[in-house]
Amino acid sequence: MSDTEIALEATGVVYRSSHDEAAFFEWLDKIPAVRSYKGELRTLYITVDASADDESIYELVALFHRYHVDMSQLRVFDTDRIGEWFRKPNSYWYESVFGTSG
């Protein structure tokens, strides 16, 4: 892992069918900032470009939300480079990423 990459972990993801599992990986493959992924036991290690753009972050938020992956690890993308949309307290992901707002 280099300084230009971030490692995310998806542990214990539950797929409801073989097509659901395929959809998860197809979605990962479509996210521009995802460089690679590798499974080990019940954990999938996802390598993401540290300079991920807003589109990639938004897709990771949606994917992690849908498949109940720990979203707090996405906090690493809270930088000045990412748009203000990521930090809006009324967004559906805010509490999962940043904790409670009050």
Question: What does this protein look like?
Answer:
The protein is of the alpha+beta class and 102 residues long. It has one domain: Alpha-Beta Plaits, CATH 3.30.70. 30% of the residues lie in helices and 21% in strands. It is built from 3 helices and 3 strands. It has a 3-stranded antiparallel beta sheet with strand order 1-3-2, covered by helices on one side. The radius of gyration is 13 Å and the shape is globular. It starts with a strand and ends with a helix.
Instruction: Profile the largest sheet.
Output: 3 strands, antiparallel
Q: How many H/I helices?
A: 3
Number of strands: 3
Tell me the radius of gyration.
Answer: 13 Å
Unreliable spans = none
Summed over residues and divided by their number, the pLDDT gives a mean of 94
CATH architecture: 2-Layer Sandwich
Structural class computed from helices and strand pairing: alpha+beta
Count the domains: 1
Characterize the overall form.
globular
* CATH fold descriptor: Alpha-Beta Plaits
Question: Could you spell the SSE succession in H and E letters?
Answer: EHEEHH
Report helical residue fraction: 25-40%
Estimate the strand proportion. Answer: 15-25%
Strand order of the largest sheet: 1-3-2
Q: So what's the CATH class?
A: Alpha Beta
Question: Kindly, what is the distance between the CA atoms of the first and last residues, rounded to a whole number of angstroms?
Answer: 35 Å
Short description:
The chain has a single domain (5-98), classed as 2-Layer Sandwich (Alpha-Beta Plaits). Helix content is 30%, strand content 21%. The chain has three helices and three strands; from the N terminus they run E-H-E-E-H-H.
